[in-house]
Amino acid sequence: MKLEKRATPYKVFSIIILVILAFLFLFPLYWIVTGAFKTTADIYAPDPQFFPKEFTLNNFERLFAKRTAPAWEFAIPFSAQFSASHQPIYFSVGPTIPAAFRWLTNTVLMAVVAMILTCITASMAGYALAKKRFRGRALLFSLIVCAMALPKQVILIPLIKEVSAMHMWDSLWAVILPTVGWPFGVFLMKQFSESIPGEILEAARIDGASEAKTFTTIVVPMVKPGIGALAIFTFINSWNDYFLQLIMLGKSSNYTISLGIATLQSETSIDHGILMAGAALASIPIIIVFLIFQKYFTQGITMGAVKG
Amino acid sequence: MSKELVRRENTSAYLFLLPSLIFFVGFVVIPMVICIGYSFTDANMNSKTNPTTFVAFQNFIQLWQDKTFLGALKNTFLIVLVSVPTVCLFSLWVGSAIYKLKGPVLSTFRCIFYLPVVTGSVAVTVVWKWMYDNYTGILNYVLSRTGIIENNINWLGDERFALWCIILILFTTSVGQPIVLYVSALGNVDHSLVEAAQVDGATNSQVFWKIKWPQMMPTTLYILVITTINSFQCFALIQLLTSGGSGTNTVMYYIYYTAFKMTEQVGHFGYANAMGVILAIFIGILSAIQFRLAKEK
After folding, report:
1. Which of A35, A82, A101, A282 is positioned for an S-S bond with A257, CB 3.0–4.6 A?
2. Chain segment B185-205, per-residue pLDDT in tens
3. How many domains does chain A have?
4. If pLDDT is split at 50, 70 and 90, which confidence band does B75 have?
């Protein structure tokens, strides 16, 4: 082992390259954050300001003023039946707020609901797949693996038809439900549930614990790290699943933050200040979540892959 | 086990699976079946005025004569052929360079390389669009200041560069997960074998290729498959940066375009689904080849 510890020229060289690469990978993020606070003059200066001297909130103010949305809306019951466009008629309640706040609230709501539903359904199914012998188990498992290998986007067009037939298009449910259906969570929880010793489950059965009780008091505490990993994984992925949001959401007050920023980009392709402010709003919260739960996240990625 | 017990075990298993199966079947399996079904019809958005009819393989035949589709297919394959090997080699190199570093340093590096994934495709795209900008972009500034280029280049508007610019962004957003996987795989390599080889006088590169590499084969395979799928699905970058212009059209974007954007025949779902089926077939074939190659080694 002593041999490896020596700082060979190759090792020094590779560390230097790594540090340079790390700075290059961080640069876009740095550029978003500084860009969000730069003055318009700095943004369009012929010499880019690497270290801005002046900070301004002007970009955020303009972003908030550009689009507004009502704080809350109600759809009039059954209004879709008689409205000309067959869409429900909405009336707004409460004050008008910057649309970006609505978008952020929508995104958080969507990601949290998707996360909770995925964790519940996937931990149950993963446990059954790992620990129970039932007819059709092998078939179901290979179906899940095949589905994971298929590109998710391919099925999006039929999904739109299905979701519109269920009158859910242009609502957050249209984004949440397909996210929950994606079988990666089941696969991950199966991997984690494999490690539960069969004897403990057997002992619980002999003691007369019901299936539900065994699951909540024995299985769930044992796969907690897995649930944590899956929760953070689902949260980040659904936050960033731009394509799904793009095709499932129609009107501006239903947008998520990613979709909102993307729309602003196509409208104001030249106003980098507003866009950087928006990009900062879309990315900083999720990066903070990632940094806090990083450990679980890494574990989730690794467990999802081994024995694949 | 008695019959009664088997039956009870079956029922309880199905009950545990039920909530998940409702979502899986409802939002993955059924759409998949519908997708294949639609690809043989001329289904479109205004199915009320324009009834859907069965057209057998007409969509597929038409696709092979569609120049735009063939161009998109070529670009898609170029993206996959370039990004898959570079992502794998790069993450293998980074993984092996950082996995022996101390805990906090290691997780800092791992985090930094993962950040572009977490940042989200829209935020990443928006900032890169600015960096590539013809007039205020930092790339042109740096390159012209250092004398590498003479005149500013319109990176995203020029057919020679646009696709490569997109591949570069795709690269930065793809290496995060492989690096995490390689770091953990390298950490799990059987150390007794490594030490035994070193005692026998094997060089570092011999240890790497003869002992560590074979043990990491399952990880490499997984990385190959996910990177391939990821590259095939490259969509947000294209939609937001070039809208398929300057020679950057890909199959995924063309599907979207046909279904939602095409002006003269908007909502041509049948045609778009046929493309989706072809894409899925290509991904299936590539995954199978990668599996086969990995098995042989």
Report:
1. A282
2. 888 888 888 888 888 888 888
3. 2
4. very high
Q: Which of A157, A170, A301 to mutate to test the interface with B (most CBs of B within 10 A)?
A: A157
Neighboring chain A residues of B116 at a CB cutoff of 8 Å: 25, 28-29
* CA neighbor of B286 nearest in space, from B232, B214, B237: B232
User: Which of B128, B180, B252 is nearest residue A301 as measured by Cβ atoms?
Assistant: B180
Choosing among 1.10.287.110, 1.10.3720.10, 3.40.190.10, 1.20.1250.20, the CATH entry for B67-296 is: 1.10.3720.10
**B78 pLDDT higher than 90:** yes
**B281 contact A CB<8A:** no
Distance CA B40, CA B59 (A): 7
Is the residue at A270 inside a domain?
yes
Residues A31, A260 contacting (CB under 8 angstroms): no
Within 10 angstroms of residue B136's Cβ, the number of other Cβ atoms is 16
Q: Range of A256's domain?
A: 99-305
How many CB atoms within 10 Å of residue A87? Answer: 14
Q: B residues 237-266 near A, CB within 8 Å?
A: 239-240, 252, 255-256, 259-260
pLDDT in tens, A249-282: 888 888 999 999 898 887 766 788 889 999 999 9
- The enclosing H or E element of A259 equals helix A257-267
Q: Which amino acid type is present at position A176? A: I
- pLDDT > 90? residue B89: yes
> What residues of chain A, 261 to 290, have a C-beta less than 8 Å from chain B?
261-262, 265-266, 269, 272, 275-276, 278-280, 282-283, 286-287, 290
Averaged pLDDT in 10-residue chunks for chain A of 308 residues: 60 89 93 90 80 85 81 67 66 77 92 95 93 88 83 81 84 91 89 88 88 90 89 90 89 87 79 90 92 84 65
CATH number of the domain enclosing A203: 1.10.3720.10
Query: With contacts defined as CB-CB under 8 Å, which chain A residues touch B216?
Result: none
